[in-house]
Amino acid sequence: MCVITSYTNAMSLLNKIRNREASVAVIGLGYVGFPLAVEFAKTGFRTIALDIDIDKVHSIQNGQIDIIGADVNDLQEVLKTGNLIPTTDFSELAKVDTISICVPTPLSKTHDPDLSFIVSAVDEISKYLHPDHLVVLESTTYPGTVEEVVKPKLEADGLRAGQDFFLAFSPERVDPGNFQWVTRNIPKVVGGVDERSTEVAKILYEQIVETVVPVSSATVAETVKLFENTFRAVNIGLVNELALMCSALGVNVWEVIDAAKTKPFGFMPFYPGPGLGGHCIPIDPFYLSWKARQSGFESRFIELAGAVNAAMPGHVVKRVAEALTSQGKSLRGANVHLFGLSYKANVGDTRESPAVDIALLLHDQGAVISYSDPFVTNIDQGGLKLTATEPDVALSDGIDCVVITTAHDDFNYSDLVKCKAVIVDTRNALKDFQGDRIFRL
Ligand code: SAJ
């Protein structure tokens, strides 16, 4: 297609977007895609909300969603307007103007990037790709995915990215459980396979996001996201190592961090914990190091931080053993109660949760595990099948040790410190309490 036609196509698509006449599609209705689809629909776009999970689609069609931070009233509002169309029918892609891909990018068992969800979504798009389509990948992935995987697949039938259709990457930055920073006010980076694709993607996201940050390519945009999350993983690894150091020195690491963060510039606090959880921070850096390795570069920071963070659950188990020993008890047969099973406070997600790793390690060493978590009703993982109990179970005589693994706001820590058990506090939840039964990281 010649440049003028491509320019004309871009202008017509831009006008449709600006006038809200464009139809948009979001593939993948998880904690990223669902709020994005609702935001498009709230802004007046006819929004095809696509997922392969028919049960999820049915519950959304019925105005129900169990994603942290999702506003059911918003959902019911956009369903009433008819702007949100939840469906499993991928042929709807033929009728839309833009497609945002928000599918998972896990690691495989061999710790390599697993692009199978992206490939499935792109294979579906390829069936319905037409001139003027804008395709935006949002899933976190290694630098080069759009250029090396997505673009060749979409161009297989002869259409050219940047000329016949537009192709970009725009990283998701959703922080589950964060109600201050939401889809509309989190700055959005966009990078296209060419200038026109960047421009079209920028105009699309400007309709629903206050600040859009264009960069020179899709590969730069992919790298931005991985750097953001690698920054967190490495700094969490550093502060976890500091915690181990302070424990050996007999220094309170939390006091050190609180004093260090009084520095008004050049410092950003991170906090030690029982390990690194969630489906992003423990995983994303290995997408970057994997790609770097393909180019012969070994990222030592990523691997080292990964090793330090992965060792934290084992360190917590050692602290539990020390706490029990102080009472003349051993791990085998001890009743250990965990406060919190999800990977971070005030969410119910147990994916990659260090609290689950700790429960499994303790169970393997013969401890009898129970837990309380207002967000996690039960768990069945690695041979451990448990149902949540009320927090006051921790106060009963039968419990030998309580481990605070996830410091949910809902827990009553003033009550907890009255328990007879020793307490291992991995989150500084008991910062206002002292006593020889309290063991910190
Ligand atoms: N953690 C620490 N110490 C810290 C901060 C976090 O041990 O100082 C632990 C948490 O307990 C948790 C893990 O790290 O187990 C990840 O925590 P997180 O706050 O990064 O939470 P995520 O993974 O849900 O969300 C992150 C986003 N969070 C923030 O920026 C605050 C952001 O990095 C990404 O937008 C998102 O991952 C993503 O989807 O990539």
Radius of gyration: 24 Å
The low-confidence runs, each spanning 5 or more residues with pLDDT under 50, are: none
Approximate helicity band: 25-40%
Helix run count: 13
Overall pLDDT: 95
Structural class: alpha/beta
Distance between the termini: 62 Å
Described by the principal axes of the CA atoms, the overall outline is elongated
Q: Which H/E pattern describes the elements? A: HEHEHHEEHEHEEHEHHHHEHEEEEHEE
| Ligand inventory | ligand SAJ
Number of strands: 15
Beta content? 5-15%
Largest sheet entry: 8 strands, mixed
Order of strands, widest sheet: 3-2-1-4-5-6-7-8
In terms of topology, how is this protein built?
Layout: H1 3-18, E1 23-27, H2 33-42, E2 46-50, H3 54-61, H4 72-81, E3 84-87, E4 98-101, H5 116-128, E5 134-137, H6 145-154, E6 166-169, E7 188-192, H7 195-206, E8 212-215, H8 218-249, H9 253-260, H10 284-294, H11 300-325, E9 335-339, H12 354-364, E10 368-372, E11 378-381, E12 384-387, E13 401-404, H13 413-416, E14 422-425, E15 438-440
Parallel strand pairs: 1-2, 1-4, 2-3, 4-5, 5-6, 7-8, 9-10, 9-13, 13-14, 14-15
Antiparallel strand pairs: 6-7, 11-12
The protein binds ligand SAJ.
Q: What would you say this structure looks like, in words?
A:
The protein has 441 residues and is of the alpha/beta class. The strands form three sheets. The chain has an eight-stranded mixed β-sheet, sandwiched between helices. Strands 10-9-13-14-15 form a five-stranded parallel β-sheet, with helices on one face. Strands 11-12 form a two-stranded antiparallel sheet. The chain is elongated. It has 13 helices and 15 strands. Bound molecules: ligand SAJ. Residues 140, 172-176, 229, 232, 236, 270-271, 273, 276-278, 280-281, 343-344 line the site of ligand SAJ.
